[in-house]
């Protein structure tokens, strides 16, 4: 209770970053909010009808989108004051439990769409070359951000830029998705910073499409988790059809990680790790030559504790 006798009401919501890979593009299911912005699917947790948070998530996702989720895991609890821009007297403070969920679905349910996640994070896709937005917009803005900070704080900012964006020989770490977004937010370079009234916000330099509330922060957390998780758990196969070629698997891994991989090294490592097995069937490749079809070898889950795609992807983006 507050000093005035008013209860501090907290409402628990469930936000889902539902991910699929279509045509070598990583997609996230988005809905259009009443305010007109992109949002992750969101629903309330009902303790009277939902046995667990995850069962609640699966229940309302199925009800609202008709999607049967495969893999799902809890990310984080997002409860910063103001995350839903609620003013005094307008209702309970909302604490949202974020989830990463994977599906092979490719049909967008009613009132939803599959959005390329690089539309929200254009600096994260290094598959062809380092995005021009980094050199042309982000790094020049960071120079001003560093200069504006006195003494040690400026050096801290410089080091964070080096680690997050691979400057001064640091190399690109594809897992630092959330750290890069948070740094851009602090520098006032994303729409959410301007919306939240940060004094440093630059209205003429908004990078990537924004999302309502803190949904882009939740999505950044989900991308970072998936990029890291697939190195020690075979979660990428939740996004693959029952039978696939090794090239299709490689392109899916590259789509998620945002970096290109060496074709022969990828094939050797996947086969050596016992993650796949041949089906005895072939599919026609884009060049018209048969390509062997493989399937995920589930026995690997009981053979060793961390069966993932340990590809050493870090720092391999071009540029």
Question: Could you give a quick summary of the protein structure above?
Answer:
Helix content is 31%, strand content 20%.
List the helices and strands and how they pair.
Elements: E1 10-22, E2 25-32, E3 38-39, E4 42-44, H1 53-65, E5 72-78, E6 93-102, E7 112-116, H2 132-147, H3 151-165, H4 177-186, H5 191-195, H6 215-229, H7 246-257, H8 263-272, E8 276-284, E9 290-296, H9 300-303
Parallel strand pairs: 1-6
Antiparallel strand pairs: 1-2, 1-4, 2-3, 2-7, 5-6, 8-9
Helix pairs in contact: 2-3, 3-4, 4-6
In which range does the helix fraction lie?
25-40%
Q: List low-pLDDT spans.
A: 1-6, 81-88, 314-319
How many strands, which pairing sense, and closed or not: the largest β-sheet? 7 strands, mixed
Order of helices and strands: EEEEHEEEHHHHHHHEEH
Q: Report the sheet-strand fraction.
A: 15-25%
CATH arch. level architecture of the largest domain: Alpha-Beta Complex
Tally of distinct domains: 3
CATH fold-level label of the largest domain: Nucleoside Triphosphate Pyrophosphohydrolase
Distance between the termini: 56 Å
Shape: globular
Helix and strand composition category: alpha+beta
Q: Name the CATH homologous superfamily of the largest domain.
A: Nucleoside Triphosphate Pyrophosphohydrolase
CATH top level assignment of the largest domain: Alpha Beta
Mean pLDDT, nearest integer? Answer: 86
How much is the radius of gyration in Å?
21 Å
What is the helix tally? 9
How many β-strand runs? 9
């Amino acid at each position: 209770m507050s000093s005035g006798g008013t209860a501090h009401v907290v409402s628990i919501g469930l936000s889902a970053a539902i991910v699929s890979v279509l045509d070598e593009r990583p997609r996230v299911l988005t809905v259009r909010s009443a305010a007109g912005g992109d949002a992750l699917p969101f629903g309330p947790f009902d303790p009277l009808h939902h046995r667990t948070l995850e069962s609640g998530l699966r229940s309302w996702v199925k009800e609202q989108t008709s999607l049967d989720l495969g893999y799902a895991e809890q990310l984080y609890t997002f409860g910063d004051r103001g995350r839903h821009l609620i003013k005094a007297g307008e209702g309970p403070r909302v604490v949202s439990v974020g989830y990463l969920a994977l599906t092979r679905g490719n049909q967008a349910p009613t009132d939803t769409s599959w959005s390329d996640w690089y539309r929200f994070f254009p600096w994260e896709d290094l598959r062809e070359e380092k995005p021009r937005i980094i050199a042309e917009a982000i790094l020049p803005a960071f120079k001003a951000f560093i200069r504006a900070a006195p003494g040690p704080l400026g050096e801290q900012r410089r080091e964070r830029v080096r680690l997050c964006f691979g400057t001064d020989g640091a190399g690109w770490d594809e897992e630092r998705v959330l750290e890069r977004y948070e740094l851009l937010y602090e520098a006032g370079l994303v729409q959410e910073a301007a919306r939240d009234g940060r004094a440093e916000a630059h209205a003429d330099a908004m990078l990537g499409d924004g999302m309502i509330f803190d949904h882009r922060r939740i999505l950044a957390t989900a991308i970072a988790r998936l990029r890291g998780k697939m190195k020690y758990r075979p979660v990428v196969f939740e996004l693959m059809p029952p039978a696939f070629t090794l090239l299709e698997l490689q392109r899916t891994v590259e789509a998620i990680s945002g970096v290109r991989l060496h074709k022969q090294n990828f094939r050797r490592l996947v086969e050596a790790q016992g993650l796949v097995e041949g089906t005895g069937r072939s599919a026609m490749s884009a060049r018209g030559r048969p390509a062997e079809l493989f399937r995920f070898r589930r026995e690997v889950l009981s053979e060793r504790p961390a069966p993932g795609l340990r590809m050493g992807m870090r720092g391999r983006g071009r540029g």
